[in-house]
Design goal:
The protein is α/β, with parallel strands linked by helices. It is built from 10 helices and 15 strands. It folds into 2 domains: 2-140 and 305-334, Medium-chain alcohol dehydrogenases, catalytic domain (Quinone Oxidoreductase, Chain A, domain 1); 145-282, 3-Layer(aba) Sandwich (Rossmann fold). The protein has helices spanning 40-47, 135-138, 141-155, 171-182, 194-202, 217-224, 242-247, 270-276, 288-300, 316-325; strands spanning 2-6, 14-18, 28-37, 64-72, 84-86, 118-122, 127-128, 163-167, 186-191, 207-210, 230-235, 249-257, 279-282, 307-312, 330-334. The strands form 3 sheets. Strands 3, 4, 5, 6, 7, 14 and 15 form a 7-stranded mixed beta sheet that branches. It has a 6-stranded parallel beta sheet with strand order 10-9-8-11-12-13, sandwiched between helices. Strand 1 (2-6) and strand 2 form a beta hairpin. The longest helix is centred in the middle third of the chain and has 15 residues, at 141-155. The protein is globular.
Amino acid sequence: MKAWLLKDFGLNNLQLGEVPTPTPRAGELLVKVGAVSLNFRDKAIVDGIYEPHLVPKPLIPVSDASGEVVAIGTGVTRFRVGDRVNSTLYSRWIDGAPGPDEPTYCLGMPLPGGLAEYMIIHEESAVRAPGSMTDEEASTLPIAALTAWYSLMDVGNLQPGQTVLVQGTGGVSIFAAKIALAHGAKVIATSSNDANLAKVKSLGVHAGVNYRTNPDWEKQVLELTDGLGADVTIEVAGGDGINKSIAATKVQGVVAQVGFLTGQTSAVNLMPLIFRQTTLRGIAVAPRSSFERMNPFLNKHNIKPVIDHIYPFAEAVKAFEHLARGPFGKVVIKIAD
Ligand SMILES: NC(=O)c1ccc[n+]([C@@H]2O[C@H](COP(=O)([O-])OP(=O)(O)OC[C@H]3O[C@@H](n4cnc5c(N)ncnc54)[C@H](OP(=O)(O)O)[C@@H]3O)[C@@H](O)[C@H]2O)c1
């Protein structure tokens, strides 16, 4: 089969090659990949800044896929040939709390990912793809949508009428905005540019703050919330900006620490954290059970992903370059018709 192989770190070392089509073992599905979507994690892996000691070489990258089951190993009961499935990032985290070694069982690194004509997914880590979505649409769910859903609903216990703060207009943030709005929450979004703010407002977002032209953006969020702050903040920026997120979040509110776009370390001012009694919660996507709760909600509210661009399989490198420029929503690679 054709597969993109990361032979060493750096986008120039991502090359199209030919490898044997895998055979499903007991409990496994062979999936003909319809589409994959890119996440910042995939780019960070290619760049060698995401757990580089775990990266096998060559690696078939990209965790998030949607496709059709074309063969099954012995003992498979959850799916049949012909079913459309989604991958999940944490292939062994089914429900409850994760085990201590989940990162060693992630698709797209260290396990082979979906940037290939076929991929193996264990039946326990596959989820039925929503019938209302194409493969291109469904491929955006496993990390971006699920992280947003888990942060808001399972961790943030979001209630209708509460306020959510989302940062930037990337994959996680747009899904968080759409899910929060469908749940009856008020949403405030930040962005580096006014054009993106206009676009998120057209999706229903109540207010936008430009974090480039307003370096003290947390004060604007407070003004927009009667001085109280957001109930749940989806933190994707990382770095020292976390102090602004704590300031922009309500007393006893939740900051879901999802991302690290500006840095993987942070100097947290403890006194505001203590006085505001903020719950600062690290997020590492979610278990399969959360995915299975999310999909009916997406179907019920007819929530579709915002896809910035769909690239053909041969142009995977261009898709990664697009991700590096900062997409509005998701970047998708179509693999099969
Ligand atoms: N922990 C987890 O489970 C998990 C899951 C998913 C993602 N993540 C992480 O979350 C982050 C976002 O992921 P993603 O897939 O949504 O990324 P993405 O689609 O690449 O989105 C990036 C967007 O973030 C915005 N941004 C960049 N710098 C920012 C800053 N300083 N402050 C606020 N917004 C900023 C930009 O929007 P504007 O151009 O509009 O400003 C940019 O388009 C990444 O660090 C990713 O690794 C973690």
